[in-house]
Amino acid sequence: MTMLLPSPSRRRLVILAYPRVEHEKDYLYHWMPFSLLTIAQRLLADGDVDVVIFDGNQRTAQEWTAFLDEHLDRAVCVGVSIMTGGGQIRHALQMVREAKLRPGCPPVVFGGPHVNVLGEQTAAHDLVDMALVGPGQRSMPELVRCLLGSGRLEQVPGLLMTRGGQLVKGPANTPKTEMMARYPWQLLNVQEYVRDDPTVAPRTLNYVSSQGCVYKCQFCYELTYQRAWSSMPADPLVQDIAELVEAYDLSGVKFYDADFFVQPRRAVDFCQALAARQLDVAWAASINPNDVLRSRKQRLDLLGSIAASGCRRLLMGIESGSDRVLRDIVRKEITREQAYDVAADIAAHGILGCYTFIVGFPGETDAEVDETYDLLTAISQLTPRPETRVHLFGPFPGTPLFDDALRYGFEAPQTLEGWADFDYYDSQTPWTSAATVARARAHTRLVKQPGAARAEVPA
């Protein structure tokens, strides 16, 4: 593989690319590329380079070509973020092929969730000059400094690259708990991401205020963070939201954190600060049932604070209605009874609940699947009537249940190209029947019409 290193006198720009993701055809929104914003914030804070971001969910292939024509001649490197599924890997490879057609294309660096678990497989691809495993906000600034002439590539945390036919590996880049800083919003056209969210508000912007998760769900990619959880403190977070509300006339914020409520005290502080600012902004977030159970033990009125601050919707993964599946397969650390109790408490506070379930786990019986649908039906009787979604189990590399899936007959792709069309919304396992898929689709109820849910949820 030939790689042209940049001249430090000319190229002082980092291109960060987020390839297109093919969600379900009825998916309403694309979130901002927060992983790239996090990396960009660190690069800009160092002051060595400028940063530009290309979001393939908002721009066309033709616009990518024009973007390269404008920026590539002074680029230090091109950073590409990929996750497993949704066609993002396929679009990433198409974008990189286009970049490689240009003389003097700088090193192309792949990172993101897929790379974190299949780094060596990613680095082996001909279009990949380097791969970065682990948190990119630590490894990317180190890599850029090396490319500008200060430091050795072998010292970059999480680096994987082929040189002289040999794999070069940098030191481990393990997740660590740290404070997150304000995003460099100026790198995006924020207005493009404002949507009428039917469950939140007419002008809703998505936001990620934390990284990682402390729980141990065996199917989840968040395990790659090794239970390290980083977040923005409550006061700076509310201040940033206040500025976004003013700048873009927002009426809602939808948090895409894996779990916004890992620290109940921080969550309560956020709710109180938000209410004190009287921003008149609705919001939504994801919650783990254990967050509510822990807040009760701590005598914190978590749900009361959430409701009083304008929260309209809480997304909660229940996963299964079988206590054995919850305990032995998922390791959700809750029981069926506790899951229903928390869902009922959310409804009692006038908050719209959205509850996700998964069927098709390796080793799950038909009777246990029936238990899941029984629990879903019971929860659906709550008022306000919740949203429900039934996912099909997808074997994600790097998770414990991926190994179980292999033992049950799942055949995993062996190359980066092979993962290009992995679709987490369709059945990927040989034991999942067409009838299982149809039943899951029939039990999925989502609010998709703007304003439809807001009529049900008390203001």
From TrEMBL:
* Keyword Iron-sulfur appears in the UniProt entry: yes
What's the cofactor? [4Fe-4S] cluster
Every B12-binding domain range: 10-154
Source domain of life is Bacteria
Q: Name the UniProt key words of this record, in alphabetical order.
A: Iron, Iron-sulfur, Metal-binding, Methyltransferase, S-adenosyl-L-methionine, Transferase
Keyword Transmembrane present in the record's keywords: the answer is: no
Cite the Radical SAM core domain residue spans from the record: 200-423
InterPro entries assigned to the protein according to its UniProt record, in alphabetical order: BchE-like, Cobalamin-bd, Elp3/MiaA/NifB-like_rSAM, Methyltransferase_Class_B, rSAM, rSAM_horseshoe, rSAM_sf
**PROSITE patterns the record matches:** B12_BINDING, RADICAL_SAM
The record's listing under Pfam families reads: B12-binding, Radical_SAM
**What PANTHER family does UniProt report for this protein, alphabetically?**
ANAEROBIC MAGNESIUM-PROTOPORPHYRIN IX MONOMETHYL ESTER CYCLASE-RELATED, BLL1977 PROTEIN
What protein does this entry describe?
Answer: Radical SAM protein
Species, as recorded: Micromonospora solifontis
